[in-house]
TrEMBL record:
One of its GO terms (biological process) is nucleotide metabolic process. The active site is at residue 98. GO terms for molecular function: catalytic activity. A motif (Histidine triad motif) lies at residues 96-100. Residues 4-111 form the HIT domain. Gene3D superfamilies: HIT-like. It holds the Pfam family HIT. InterPro entries: Histidine_triad_CS (IPR019808), Histidine_triad_HIT (IPR001310), HIT-like (IPR011146), HIT-like_sf (IPR036265). This is HIT family protein. It comes from the Bacteria.
Amino acid sequence: MPTIFERLYSGELPCARVYADEHVFAFMDAGQLNDGHVIVASIRPYETLMDADEETAAALMRAARRIAIAVEREFSADGVTVLQANRAAGWQTVPHLHLHVLPRRAGDAVTLGWPRRDPPFETLQALAARIRV
């Protein structure tokens, strides 16, 4: 069964498209946390960033950058949050690779936070050794 983003891309469902290339497309989020909130999604139905090929992952960020520049300019944003989530535990709500470009305003009440733990430097070195690529 196609994902909602596949249905949007194919035209089965309407979307206010702002960008498309051979790997990704972007459209206004129907939820609009702030005016100018855009979703950039892969055309192929990869579930997560880790499933995507490198070309698609790079295209996702290239498009996000271009859109963030336009959003910041056109909506006079104080800043821009780019959010990409993977799997339910990582806050992903749609099982199709995408990211949000969200224009921000000081005091806009949009929140995102986590508790900081501040491990010792030696712990950071050990963690880095486990994933060094």
